[in-house]
Amino acid sequence: MLNIKDLSVAFSSKSDFDLKRANLLFKILSNPVINKIGATLTQKALDFNLPIEPLILSTIYQQFVGGTSPQKCISSINKLSTYNIQTVLDYSVEAKASNKGFDQTLNEISELIDFSKNHPSLTFTVVKMTGIAHFKILQKLSKNEILNTNEKEDWSNSIKRLDILCQKALDNNLNFFIDAEETWIQKAIDEIAQKMMLKYNTKQARVFTTFQMYRNDRLDYLNQSIQHAKDNNYFFAVKLVRGAYLEQENERARQFSYKTPMNPTKDKTDFCYDKAVEVCLESLKHTSFCLASHNEESTLKLVNYMKQNNLENNHPHISFAQLYGMSDHISYNLAKSKFRTLKYIPYGPVNDVIPYLMRRAEENVSMTGQMSRELGYLQEELQRRKNIN
What we know:
The protein contains 17 helices and eight strands. It is an alpha/beta fold. Strands 1-8-7-6-5-4-3-2 form an eight-stranded parallel β-sheet.
């Protein structure tokens, strides 16, 4: 019987020192003022070449980042593997907005696929379209605007980059996530993701699109997408997330005076998320999905559904995912019960990954409930160990 709050399992891989370091970090992240000041000062220190890299590597990198390269992530990958947790290595570097920068990202992810094929617990890889394509072009395509000659050539090259990565992932028996991004470029991403699924998911689900369920149009689009897959004889595959750009989306809607594409409340988003899971389950023969969530209720709803409908815990069409350094009580307890469990591990050079970490810090400001929960579990486990000793 799954007990998602078994903290002895959740933190079984962590030493007392690990827990105390995490406890301090989450205390900082739980304070919006300290959080914001810390992120700003960190960036400025790096801009002025101050020697703070060792401090970053020994603190926030230890908690939320695997390392500066795939090779540096080996110990984290192996440790997770011993607990039946697979790893998704995520190259979390902001691509330079140039074809040279996009080709650099292509080469990095291509090398990551070569690296992954030698590690059985690395079964997924991931890309953000803005890492291999111009934001402006994605925006124009999403608005159905005509591209000029140079833009057409650039977009053609971006499609080739994605195609190369999808093909290479499949050649090496890996699954491939295409991440979701801002709504004003997402239409173009949706369309290219669908084309890749149509091309590569003919025999099984390999290429996954991503749906952000805080959007008020995603349920309808999910039903349309599954029907499109059925009509065209390919497997639909999706990573379900709640969403990561809420404040940015609402602010832009206010700035340009259009109706926000976001759900009006968190309860509505929770409803849409759980409904999306139901929709996927109803078409499980044709659909694979990843429940990418730190939400305990959504996780347990799916677990209970699988049990009630006699679906094996390691069902090939269902997986669960959480970010590295967060929600270990969900990940480790799921994995112990043989559910297909993934951890997203970002990696990259310190200077280049800082923008990712700053965005994560900003998200944490609006996730005080999440941070409080993490902090509470850490302190509860520290107390439990103290009582034992």
